[in-house]
Specification:
The complex is a heterodimer of chains A (447) and B (327). By secondary structure, chain A is an alpha/beta fold. Chain A has helices at 2-16, 19-43, 63-73, 78-93, 96-102, 119-126, 168-189, 194-201, 221-255, 258-263, 268-300, 310-336, 340-366, 371-376, 383-392, 399-427, 437-446, and strands at residues 52-59, 107-111, 135-141, 158-161, 209-212, 215-218. Residues 74-81, 84-90 and 92-99 of chain A have low confidence and may be disordered. Chain B has two domains: 3-219, Rossmann fold; 228-289, Alpha-Beta Plaits. Chain B is 33% helix and 27% strand. Chain B is built from eleven helices and 13 strands. In chain B, strand 1 (6-17) and strand 2 form a beta hairpin. Classes of the chains: A alpha/beta (447), B alpha/beta (327).
């Protein structure tokens, strides 16, 4: 045991007390901080962007274009109509800050096509360059857009033509303006009052209140959405970080030939166990730090009460399972190859499988009881990620499923360590061509 | 000698890699306190045999005991090992590296730093303890690795090609340290493909070729058994006639070699008497009995496999150290 601890201590010290580790440890929270502070500005809507230009409309009904024109000339332009929509959406989503983020209101100028112009000639107008007031779109209103044709009940719509490389935001604004104008025309044809209708159909969105033991507070919708990914992120970065470390150090020890010196002092199993133990300590430090920062963040926003602390316990249990499974496989890969390039090829299938959990995060979080979620949460080595996602979701699985997943994970650990120990023992002293699957099987049988 | 008395006891050990037999049916008994040379050309199976002795590789068949244990795993703390493929943790400081290896070998923490310093000084590298391993030259690293092999005062010291890559001064220093360890009481097995190195310090030689043992004898026995019955002499006057020498009854053949002559004596001839009669027949500048060299013995033993003159010459050169084949 003391030899295992000696190996573990060396691995721990050689990794933790390096500038690279400390910088690496700080990079993640720094990036997250930058993301939180600068993310909305970097990834949010361009507030200085405004739709500005000309919109040509061929309207055989005469109602839609007049509705649109009336809006533009009488102080209730489509721009303002869309502005009303913007405000309504912004209010529902959370207020003025969102409205600000939505950016400037569009400024559309309605253009009548030349007298007698058909659709084809009007399309040519779209391609005429006009820097002052660009030609944004040509809309052809269906004859039955505002009122059904005789003997029909269905209403029509419109066709929209845009020039090449049209900005999608422009198209959205134009479509909104046209939709509002068509609705206005339909309302008028039906003899109704648009303002009264708006009043009748408008119900402001309310914010729910989460009631907990002895307290209640406004529901933070994002909490339930972000919690699963936060826990999976913790698990993934901790396991993959240490797995990568074990892969790298094993390759280094093999290529620097220090491995044979070590094997003269300890058995391959002792060496492997020591390395696993050392890197487990490193991972636990990193995970505990990130977890602590996360809890601190929740505490500072008074959200700590919303966290079920059994999740932290499950995080550590699933961490140990994932760590020993993936870590031992990584170490076996490191022992089997001669350099990182070969390791990347050998590890490709495992990495693809592990990366798949990022694609599965959204569907599992949205529907934690789905067949997909069930399969993933019982399939090693990704079961740890799948089950943790389900546990952190709004619909945690029953306890028997959690413990079945833990049992399957433990069986996976035994299998992975058994496999890795055999490959590790043989591979450490093998140089030259990296092994393929038949070679690995031969090693396992020989060890 | 019983297996328990022997430091190393191999019986019928065989190891194959795929379709290649690296070691075949190897028997080897090394008594405690002996200094054995394990010699053979590159690829002969020396390193594989040593790795099996160290339990780094497991034999396919055969029995193996090391220091009375069924496996070196049970006696690793009593074994010092300098592998052929030498490596260190390059980013570690010398003292930290040696202390780490010592702890793995069960050396107590108390007095460890002093022991490290003393041994580093013993190999002529005083003051390098605080330097990182990557800052040392190859020769310096080799000495550090030798220190790592002896830091726990092992009962058995196994050195795989310990002199490869060393300059003559370092080679002499290392050779002296091996002798010191032997005098301390350690059993020593060292492998080399350069036979004069083995001739210098070994009291017993094991030769291996293509995985099979071809010789296992004390050095003195090899010298007497493989006596070439040859006298080397150079006439005082290089132009002097040697017909009188050719006519001596002990002389079977006389051949001119490198400015002198090689006299092959008849079977049973008295070499000392022959030297006196040669000296009486022709004034000589130098005269001596030709000693058997291990590479000659080896080439003779594997004559069947090195029948072509080119192959024999190449093998002889390699064994003499003239050709350093990269491992």
């Amino acid at each position: 045991m003391s030899k295992i601890l000696q190996i573990a201590a060396r691995e721990f010290v050689a990794t933790v007390f390096t500038k690279g580790f400390i910088i690496g440890l700080l990079v993640l929270p720094t990036m997250l901080g930058i993301g939180v502070l600068a993310g909305p500005r970097l990834f949010g809507a361009d507030r200085n962007f405004a739709v500005s230009g000309q919109l040509a409309v061929i309207d055989v009904t005469g109602d839609v274009a007049s509705e649109l024109r009336a809006g533009l000339t009488q102080g209730t332009p489509a721009a303002e109509i869309t502005d009303v929509i913007r405000r309504a959406r912004a209010d529902a989503a959370g207020g003025g800050a969102v409205l600000e983020a939505l950016g400037l209101a569009p400024k559309l100028t309605l253009v009548d096509p030349p007298a007698g112009a058909d659709v084809e000639s009007a399309k040519a107008w779209l391609l005429v360059a006009d820097k002052e007031s660009p030609h944004l779109a040509l809309a052809v209103i269906h004859a039955n857009a505002a009122q059904p044709n005789a003997d029909e009940t269905s209403l029509g719509s419109f066709d929209l033509y845009v020039p090449p490389k049209q900005d999608q935001r422009v198209e959205i604004a134009v479509q909104q303006a046209l939709r509002e104008a068509i609705i206005g025309a339909r309302v008028k044809r039906a003899g109704l009052d648009r303002a009264a209708l708006n009043e009748l159909t408008s119900v402001p969105r309310v914010r729910s209140v989460t009631v907990t033991e002895g307290a209640e507070r406004g529901t933070v919708g994002a909490f339930g959405f972000l919690l699963p990914i936060a826990f999976m992120f913790l698990l993934f970065t901790s396991v993959m970080g240490s797995g990568q470390g074990m892969l790298t150090t094993t390759i280094e020890e093999k290529s620097s030939r220090v491995i044979e010196v070590l094997l003269s002092a300890v058995s391959p199993m002792q060496l492997m166990a020591g390395k696993l133990l050392g890197h487990m300590g490193i991972s636990l430090i990193a995970m505990s730090l990130y977890l602590g920062l996360g809890l601190l963040g929740l505490s500072s926003f008074s959200l700590l009460g919303l966290l079920d602390f059994s999740l932290v316990l499950y995080l550590f249990i699933f961490f140990l399972i994932a760590f020993f499974t993936i870590g031992s496989i990584m170490m076996a890969a490191g022992a089997a190859v001669n350099d990182m390039r070969e390791a990347q090829s050998l590890m490709m299938p495992v990495m693809v499988m592990l990366m798949s959990v990022w694609f599965l995060w959204f569907p599992i979080s949205r529907n934690p009881d789905s067949a997909l979620a069930m399969v993933v949460s019982f399939l090693p080595p990704v079961n740890t990620f799948g089950m943790l996602l389900r546990l952190a979701s709004q619909h945690p699985p029953p306890a028997w499923q959690v413990w079945l997943s833990i049992g399957i994970g433990c069986a996976g650990v035994v299998g992975a360590v058994w496999f890795a120990a055999k490959v590790f023992r043989i591979g450490l002293l093998m140089f030259g061509k990296p092994p393929n699957l038949p070679t690995l099987i031969r090693w396992i049988r020989a060890a | 000698m019983s297996a328990l008395d022997a430091a190393i006891d191999l019986r019928g050990v065989t190891k194959t890699f795929g379709g290649t037999t690296a070691v075949e049916d190897l028997d080897l008994v090394i008594p405690r306190g002996a200094l054995y040379g394990f010699i053979g050309p590159n690829g002969a199976g020396k390193t594989t045999s040593i790795r099996m002795i160290m339990s780094i590789l497991l034999p396919d068949s055969g029995e193996l005991r090391v220091l009375g244990s069924a496996s070196a795993l049970e006696a690793k703390d009593k074994i010092g090992y300098l592998p052929e493929e030498r490596g260190v943790y390059r980013k570690m400081k010398v003292a930290a590296y040696l202390a780490f290896i010592a702890r793995l070998k069960g050396v107590a923490e108390r007095g460890l730093a002093a022991r490290v310093s003393a041994l580093v000084e013993r190999v002529g590298l005083a003051g390098v303890e605080s330097r990182k391993c990557e800052e040392l030259s190859k020769g310096m690293l080799q000495k550090i690795q030798f220190v790592a092999a002896i830091i726990h005062e092992p009962d058995l010291l196994i050195l795989d090609e310990p002199f490869s890559g060393l300059d003559p001064v370092s080679m002499r220093l290392l050779r002296d340290q091996i002798v010191v360890e032997h005098r301390r009481g350690a059993t020593i097995l060292f492998s080399t493909h350069v036979m004069p190195q083995a001739e210098e310090i070994c009291d017993h030689v094991v030769m291996i070729h293509r995985g099979r043992k071809v010789l296992d004898d004390p050095t003195s026995s090899i010298r007497s058994r493989y006596d070439p019955r040859t006298i080397l002499f150079e006439p005082f006057d290089a132009r002097a006639s040697v017909e009188a020498v050719r006519a001596l009854p002990e002389v079977e053949a006389c051949a001119a070699v490198d400015g002198g002559y090689e006299l092959l004596l008849r079977e049973g001839a008295d070499a000392a008497g022959a030297i006196s009669r040669v000296a009486a027949a022709v004034p000589v500048g130098r005269i001596e009995i030709k000693r058997p060299r291990l590479e000659d013995v080896f080439v003779q033993l594997v004559a069947d496999e090195s029948r072509s003159p080119d192959a024999a010459r190449s093998l002889r050169a390699e064994l003499a150290g003239a050709v350093q084949v990269a491992p």
